[in-house]
Amino acid sequence: MNNQDLIYHYFSNSLTAEQEITFKKLLETDPDFKSEFDYENNLKKAIKSHESDALKTKLQGFESELKTPKNTNFKFAFLAIAASLLFLMGWFGYNSIFRTNYDNLYASNFTAYPNTAYSITRGDDAVSAERDAFVAYETKNYEKALDYFNEIPEADQKKYIPFYKAQSYLIIDNLEKAKPLFIQVVSNKTDFAAESTWYLALIAIKEKNKEQATDYLEKLIANYSYNQAEAKELLKKLN
Fold first, then answer.
1. For residues 107 and 144, what is the distance between their CA atoms, to the nearest angstrom?
2. Do 131 and 223 lie in a common domain?
3. Angle at 114 between CA 125 and CA 236, to 5 degrees
4. Looking at the structure, do residues 116 and 198 belong to the same domain, yes or no?
5. Of 99, 133, 151, which marks where a domain is finished?
6. Is the four-CA dihedral 185, 187, 189, 194 of positive or negative sign?
7. Max CA pair span of the chain
8. How far apart are CA 230 and CA 236, in angstroms?
9. What pLDDT sits at residue 93?
């Protein structure tokens, strides 16, 4: 988890106990992290202060409404004030209550894709980088899997290798290397193109890019049967 994610989880009160320890340690020992945190904290205070001033102005307006002459239609004035209060509730409450929680959406929809491409049997004593890569992949040693995947000569790489390399990078949170590999699979229209479209949507969600996530989900629904129900449900939550 990077520093920005830690700060985001701090302000959303969603740090785990382990993350909280890391957060406090960084705050005490990392000047850049503390500077970034102070900036975000001061920004939130400034926004809160601005909203408070705006609320005072609104309430003063309500007071003026209530002091209207007796011949004013009281029902109309009441409804106007009630509507304004509902607007304010939406204004102040939307971000904290109804804001899309991208981290939760990603976590609840991501699962590592199983090895369905390379069969490993107990009696198989063949030695190859590809076999070693998938053994490491199946035992969740993704960094080791990547070492082996990268050892496979380009001429010997099967069409499914980029997908499993992308999976491995994604699982270890290296989005910069995972993303172009998934895009490569989709562009080449090889096996796992549908699955790659799904994972590109999840990457966009992890990056809090709603527009891109929506685009990938719509393409998945329009062109493939893979995870259609999940994609439609995600679209609802994003919109």
1. 24
2. yes
3. 170
4. yes
5. 99
6. positive
7. 95
8. 10
9. 46
The range of the structural domain enclosing residue 211 comes to 106-238
Distances (CA, A) of 210 to 87, 109, 140, 143, 224: 24, 15, 30, 29, 21
Burial of 146 (0-12, 13-18, 19+ CB in 10 A): buried
End-to-end C-alpha distance for the chain, whole angstroms = 26
Question: Cα–Cα distance between 122 and 145 in angstroms, integer?
Answer: 19
In the chain, the percentage of residues whose pLDDT exceeds 90 is 49
With a CB cutoff of 8 Å and minimum separation 6, the contacts of 201 are: 213, 216, 217, 220, 231, 234
H or E stretch at 45: helix 31-66
CA–CA distance, 171 with 142 (Å, rounded to integer): 8
pLDDT on residue 151: 95
Residue 194 — pLDDT band, cuts 50, 70, 90? Answer: very high
226 close to 220: Cβ distance less than 8 angstroms: yes
Q: From the CB of residue 39, how many other CB atoms can be counted at a distance below 10 Å?
A: 11
What the block records as the tokens of 134 is: 């998938």
Verify that 114 and 211 share a domain, yes or no: yes
The domain boundary, picked from 99, 114, 134, lies at 99
The DSSP result for 185-238, as a single string, is HHHHT-TTHHHHHHHHHHHHHHTT-HHHHHHHHHHHHHH--TTHHHHHHHHHHH
